[in-house]
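Technical note accompanying the year-one report. For the benefit of new consortium partners, we illustrate the data format agreed upon in the data management plan: each record pairs a sequence with a structure-token string. No post-processing was applied to the example shown here.
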Amino acid sequence: MGEGGIGCRILPLAAVYIKLGDAQGGCAVWWKRKVEEWIEKYKEAPGTRFGESPYRFWRNDLFTSEEVLRTLPRNLELDRLVNLGAAVACQERLFQTAHLWWNGEDDKLRVAYSGVLLTKMYLCLAYPRETILSRVASALPEVTAEARLCARLVSPNSTYRHVRNALAHGTVDLFPRPQEVLFRDRDQEVRLHVTEAELLIHVVLDIIMGAYEALSPPNK
């Protein structure tokens, strides 16, 4: 399925889910609150190094400064991804519902979460073109948080690149060890703690949706 395959039929859902964060945690949109939550969990996860990761450049107010708005490319074709936030939100609500149904039934919850996690990875890390991040990184001033974040995400041999390649034409093993996802990109293996997999998903989602909002006319 190419970009835009979801269509406009669920566009009202996007408007609903974009505002979820207003009532929960004070963030403008729900995925920013999720990024903040996953950053804290990532910092606490064993073997992670937040201070050396691209995520250290994430800010709650990406794509809002005048300098960024002035230099952000106008032809990123993000209209095709307008429903991405709604699609990811539906997956997260799906798991919340499964948790209510199967509370205490770990095997069923593990299967449900595996499906939700894999779907979110494809939606945010494989479905949107990688060039969106590289074009943002090259167009914006190097000192901006947006440029630094995107540049490190798409740098050679980066986690994002290997994860995306594994999703596109490699293999993904969910939980070969507890709390671990294994990505195989040709001769490269990347093992991520599940907190980093979730953090990567939501950071990329925030970049795409933040850029879309920045490029959208008022009241669109």
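Partners are asked to follow this layout when depositing records. Residues 11-153+195-215 form one domain.
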